[in-house]
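We read letters as residues; the fold follows as tokens. Both lines appear below.
***
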Amino acid sequence: MISVGVLSVAGPAVAQDMELVMSSWLPPRHPIVVNAMKPWAEEVEEVTEGRVSVRVLASPLGAPPAHFDMARDGVADITYGLHSFSQDDRFDASQVGQFSFLGDDAVDVSKAFYTVYTEDLGAAEDHEGTHILGLFTHGPGAFHNAERPIEAPADFSGLKIRVPGGYTATLMEGLGATPVFTSSTEVYEQLSRGVIDGATFTKEALTAFNLTDDIEYSLTVPGGIYNTTWFLVMDEDKWQQISPEDQQAISEISGLAFAERVGKAWNDADAAAEEEIADAGIETSTANEEVVAAIRAVAEQAEQDWAEGLGEGRDGAAALERLRSMTGTNAQTN
């Protein structure tokens, strides 16, 4: 898993280089891999003057939902993934960054999510056993399907829709759709075979996962119909083997700096996908007031239930209000 080489000069070791392995499950040409993960990995080597390097694998060491545990257990040194893929309650607090109407800019939402989760909702505790390198979101989530345009709340009814878990499953069920949990890499097969009717995804996902031939309608909502939250983490034991000097150098390009890097990559990917979506003949629309009101009704109840369920010491309502104030969407939701 790890290749650790010792540099020596005719005697005792004088320095130690460390190569870290990142398990990467998104397609190698996915814009986030190309424009965020790999550039960050290259910069790690640069800022540590070659003492620490990161090798991004072309194929993952496990299934996408297993990636947090893989870093915690030392199967891989560095992993990334969606909090909602865990399908349990360990990352419940991360839902602060998954709700509807959070913002249209992935940089702003990612930086706000990183700040609020780390400062207000105990992110370090939730990610115990790993060192957090990044917490971020993608761009505003949309609703794509192959059956019909969404012109009224009733149009959601009966559609089998891929969800990434978490809040999005609650939202789809509340709107009358049937949520089907599956990882991003499985959507193409399920959609092309008719197992699902559509998916909650970003715009870029339609192009990144080759879905444009099977999607007919795409619905967007100002601020996003939903979002997903992501982690970039490292095995804590391996992190402790890095010198304090190099830890500091890596930290300076991680955290908020990484949230900005990956957010920009997602913004650019969404913008680039718009032309391809148009060329594919997909009918795009913005949710009307009736549909937005239906989403808001489900969302407000879900937010309340989530905040009440966090338990003592975590004020979810205040954290969500702070996040929205940081992204400038409070006025839209009040």
